[in-house]
Write a structure and sequence with these properties.
- It contains seven helices and no strands.
- By secondary structure, it is mostly helical.
- Helix 4 (56-91) runs antiparallel to helix 5, helix 4 runs parallel beside helix 7 (126-153) and helix 6 crosses helix 7 (126-153).
């Protein structure tokens, strides 16, 4: 953080990068127009921005589905389930001995192999992707509190 230490403002640190980006986009636009590159081969940045603006409602709906329904909901569900399981495992030691081997086995299955099974069971729409995200998040959000609790208790056995 050399710039922050010298008292430079955020704008002074960001301005060179923004200027370089604008220069690169304008240079690309100029070169593509100067060499008359067909739009089907490489569209100009202006044409790309125009297409993005035209399709903005569809893109925003898809962003909502991808981010909120699939990613965020899956993350929250996996984290909540993992924390609940962690609380139960920390409270009841027999659950740790009974569930940990199965959890380790389940977490070792590649998501590429597990995703088709989830899609077949849940369906092809957004809930299947939510379940895939929840499964991905579940083991780390369960294991981290358990490991922290064991370290705090001074227990070295697993």
């Amino acid at each position: 953080m050399r710039g922050a230490a010298q008292g430079e403002s955020r704008a002074a640190r960001t301005l060179p990068a923004a200027f370089t980006l604008i220069l690169a986009v304008l240079g690309t636009e100029a070169l593509l127009r100067a060499y008359a590159v067909p739009a089907g081969l490489i569209p100009t940045p202006g044409r790309v921005l125009s297409a993005l603006w035209t399709a903005r409602t569809v893109l925003l709906q898809d962003t909502y589905t991808t981010f909120v329904l699939e990613a965020l909901l899956g993350f929250l569900a996996g984290t909540a389930l993992g924390l609940i399981m962690a609380l139960l495992v920390v409270r009841f030691r027999f659950l740790e001995r009974g569930l940990l081997p199965y959890a380790a086995l389940f977490s070792s299955i590649p998501i590429v192999a597990l995703a088709p099974v989830i899609v077949k069971a849940v369906g092809l729409d957004w809930p299947s992707k939510t379940v895939v995200v929840a499964v991905t998040v579940l083991f780390p959000s369960w294991w981290a509190p358990c490991a922290a609790s064991r370290a705090r208790r001074g227990c070295t056995s697993t």
